[in-house]
Specification:
By secondary structure, this protein is mainly α. The protein has one domain. The chain is built from five helices and no strands. Helix 1 runs parallel beside helix 3 and helix 2 runs antiparallel to helix 3. The longest helix has about 35 residues. The chain is elongated, with a radius of gyration of 17 Å. It starts with a helix and ends with a helix.
Length: about 140
């Protein structure tokens, strides 16, 4: 059962990160859309559906499967896991910010620039790199 849960965990992580990399990209393009325009309304729908149909469920499955794996594998005793756990907590916090910013766009209250969203788009990538290194290399 452990290997099946691990496969589910990897699938969920890939889905979660794909969404986390795409959503801020939508924000970049949404910044250019005039408030109330058809384009802006389309971005609102795309952002909401991406978050609700892919990113949120994938995050939940990632967490549930991951917690099972940590417990069943005894990984909670390992130093590398503590770093990975911290990085996943930060990624979950970034997810929360993305949710808030999506709500700002939905209410036509965005105050951030394209440049901000282009920079913030790199945060999930950096966290992913750290997480993968912890899991694969297990440096400590």
């Amino acid at each position: 059962m452990y290997e099946w849960i691990k496969a589910l965990h990897v699938i969920a992580v890939i889905s979660w990160l794909a969404g986390m990399l795409y959503l801020p990209r939508l924000f970049v393009y949404h910044c250019d859309a005039e408030i109330g325009s058809k384009q802006s309304e389309t971005f609102k729908i795309m952002e909401r559906r991406l978050l609700r149909a892919i990113i949120n469920p994938a995050m939940m499955v990632t967490w549930l499967a991951g917690l099972y794996l940590v417990w069943a594998g005894g990984w909670y005793k390992s130093g590398w896991f503590h770093v990975k756990f911290l990085l996943v907590l930060i990624l979950s916090g970034v997810h929360g910010f993305f949710t808030r910013w999506m709500k700002d766009f939905a209410a036509d209250r965005n105050t951030r620039s394209q440049k901000f969203y282009r920079l913030i788009n790199e945060v999930p990538t950096l966290l992913m790199i750290g997480i993968v290194i912890m899991v694969i290399v297990k440096p400590f």
